[in-house]
Write the structure tokens for this entry.
Amino acid sequence: MSEFEPILLANVNAENSHTRSVYESTGGYAALRQVLGQMSKTDLIELVKASGLRGRGGAGFPTGLKWTFLPKDHPGPIYFCLNADESEPGTFNNRILMEEDPHQVIEGLILSCFATNTTTAYFYMRYEYPLAWERVQAAVDECYAAGYLGKNILGSGYDLDIFLHRGAAAYICGEETGLIESLEGKRAWPRIKPPFPAVEGVFHKPTVVNNVETVACVRHIAERGAEWFRSMGVPPDPENPRDPGSFGPKLYCLSGHVEKPGCYEAPLGITVNELIERFGGGVWKGRKAKAAIPGGISMGLLTADEFDCPLDFAGPGRYKCLGLGTAAVVVMDETVSMVDFLLNSSQFFAHESCGQCTPCREGTSWALKMMQRIKAGRGRLIDLDLLLEIGDNIGIIPGTTICGLADGAAWPLKNGIRKFRDEFEDYIRRTNPEGYAETDPVPALEVIGAH
Amino acid sequence: MATVTVNGQEIELGDDERLNGIQAAARAGVEIPHYCWHAGMSVVASCRMCLVEAGRKTAEGDVQMVPKLVPACQTPATDGTVFVTNSEKVVQARAMVEEDLLIRHPIDCPICDKAGECHLQDYHFEHGRDQRRADIKPFTSRRRELGDTVTLFVDRCVMCTRCVRFTREISGTKELFVVNRGAHEEIDVFPGFPLDNKMSGNVVDLCPVGALGDRDFLYQQRVWFMKSHDNVCAGCSTGCSIKVEENQDRVYRVKPRENPHINQWWMCDEGRYGLSHIHDPRRCLQPQRGDGSEYANVEWTELPAELEGKLRDAGRIGVVLSPHLTVEEAYLLATYIRKCDPDALLAVGPIPAQGEDEAFPNGFTIRAEKCPNRAGVEAIVSQLGGQLVAWDDFLTRLDGGEFAVAWVTGGYKTEWIDEPTAARFTNVKTLIVQDLFGSPLWERATYRLPGASFAEREGSYVNVEGRLQSFRWAVRPPSGVMVEGQLYWRLLERQGLFKARAVLDEVAREIAHFSPAATEIPEHGVDLKSNQLAGV
Ligand SMILES: Cc1cc2nc3c(=O)[nH]c(=O)nc-3n(C[C@H](O)[C@H](O)[C@H](O)COP(=O)(O)O)c2cc1C
Ligand code: SF4
Ligand code: SF4
Ligand code: FES
């Protein structure tokens, strides 16, 4: 791979990188001046479409296309929600951007709002990011003072207000319609679709929801053009007519058992191996890797043999994972028990299920109880089939739930048990020599009451 | 016209019909099990019991199915929509949801009020697996009061949120909400803000399982011992369609009966819980003859001849028709009295009123007028009597000494006449009073005739909007009481038992106002104004 200069992370290490003066000293807000001076809203949408930018929040939906779903000639208001709820385990790229380079995010946000004809933006930030909160608020204040926000921005006649909203500290608040409900002051129960947010979102008005990194990319596309953006990444798979390709730079969050965990930037399509070796300094303590999650825990599991998986939007799917997700790679070394991994993941989803849909609420809770029992040495081989049955049947892909949280809960179950079945079976036989073959329902463990 | 296919069977829907998969399938005679969906409230599509396969028939006749399951409640039935509700995939999905719902359910059916009319029981029997595979110890049956009317059995809840939506969308009072997340969710109220609204009892009917218990009905009766009778609430002039549920002539509860023209699916708490008068031990149970101080018992069988003697050629008769009488009863009594005295005066009894009309966000209205049949009785009085004489008017004439005989019908649940008013009857020679409870008037009566409560009556009421609804009796009156209609029937020397339908036929023939009632009365009643609209 040729030498790649970080784009989104270019300035994060500079001193006072979070201030306007430092941001402007490296060309910040030039793109905004340029666009407001010369481009129409539709030109900007076309530009983003042409760039092939896909959402960085997890689903990888083409950003320009999403913007065109807004009703034409709507009298307004149209709302923009910036999704900074970043709760996918292993994911912290939004956090780096907001803490170290908040103006980059805000410039991208202003441009995205301009393109979508929005005059009010809600910056929905997860509760647990106090430093990001301070810095983004300070940056917003600086922007008002500099005339980048408020009425008649830079004399262009365009008005925009950004409101920071502190999240309700739940994973589900990151699901776009959960976010909208939460923003409206309600319980973050994802909405049924249709209507989609582009038609009816916040306060019953058309609404765009985009991720922090997505709008940061918009800032660079506006400055350097679509062709430049498309020069990075992976072109569409000719075998798959529905693949629009994976272009641009991406922030990869690398954590777990590597020597140098961190947030690294690379063109979309870097493999897990390259990421671990080139950025992560290899698996830690000279050990071998056993598995990795490719893009947040929701995306499933790769075995060490599958580390040639390219981390673009289409790559993980070819390795039976759900997708690229948030590109948060968590590496597990050979000492990690997959039983522990699955117990941990089950715990997360049971805890975070919003509880609306029966299959998700009960499926995640039952899976957790089974994993707790297996861990406690009371597992049965048949439990693995039951866990797989839950994994195969919950989610929006089979159609049994309202939102994708359940799909995220399903994938670790499916990949974990299918890819590591021998290990689970060995564990169960070893820890429950008397009862592993039992098929009748067993009583619940008294000690494992609550989670 | 839209053509929709359900399990291969084509059905036609009208152009202006907006039905979902559950409703469309019902038209085809196919039941799609569901918990969260209710026709009267917003769609949340969260219980997932109604999952089906859906697709679309193209103009060429090919069918393209959506690869995943969809909730029928959230899927509109439009021209070309195809629903499949009996595939293996659907069967499995239902089994999954049923299994899920029983994982933490206490399964305490033997002590659950809902047993016998519980969707969880019925659906599990039909769609669930035959073996429990879950290894989870259910919580115990925790319970807490949500308010004066409703108890929550926390762990029986299936989280359909119908009750929550009811308080938001129908009563508009918003007391109920969901606390916690995931499998720890519970329905709750805020401390100090109990479930307290005038429609609260409806949440118990809405609850598909036994999570919400009616404190009035709790542990009173197993539902399978009760018989249900269509009836009409006598609580106010809205006249909600209801079901009276009884066992061996004891009324245990009333529930609303769906009527799109009147009450949709609801009724108010006043009507629901206002039943104590039916079995009140203070009810009048002994017909008597006397002079205001000394009374002797009389037999109902002796009465027709005796009354005939007292009323014929006795001078002018004034008769007060209570707005609690059915149309048929009012008509029969008026007819009888007119036979005794062609010049008799017909008047309407006092109209009990309390507060103001109260409208809820969805349009449901509790009326200030606390009687069921003012409109019906007024129509009888003005049509047969030639003028509408109100109670006050009647009293003035009474003071003027117009009447030798007065026949007053009561039937009010609460005290309706005070001593000074009753004293104005001193100048009539013969005073006949029919009533539920004793009163200053009863104390003065020459004949004291115990009357019926609404659950014992038969006939028709006309509500405030002019809709006539007919119903049959739900329980027999306590011994000693003769239902008004039955007495009048006998006085008129008709054979056998009082037949309200036969009387309504006469009313509809004789009084143009009632002509729309000439045909069979549908379960939702008939609009008496329809004859005027149609110019009949
Ligand atoms: C359970 C769940 C949690 C999610 N959490 C986040 C999140 O924290 N941040 C985010 O940007 N997107 C999250 N998403 C994805 C959003 O629903 C949405 O697709 C995204 O914000 C769109 O932005 P993009 O198009 O810029 O990627 C989540 C989705 C699900 C199903
Ligand atoms: S899938 Fe799970 S998290 Fe998503 S709406 Fe349903 S219950 Fe809530
Ligand atoms: S209490 Fe009953 S109506 Fe309310 S959510 Fe639970 S099951 Fe549904
Ligand atoms: S009835 Fe359709 S999801 Fe509950």
In short: Residues B 157-163, 187, 206-209, 211-212 surround iron/sulfur cluster (ligand 3) (CB under 6 Å). The domain at 338-450 of chain A is CATH 1.20.1440.230 (de novo design (two linked rop proteins)).
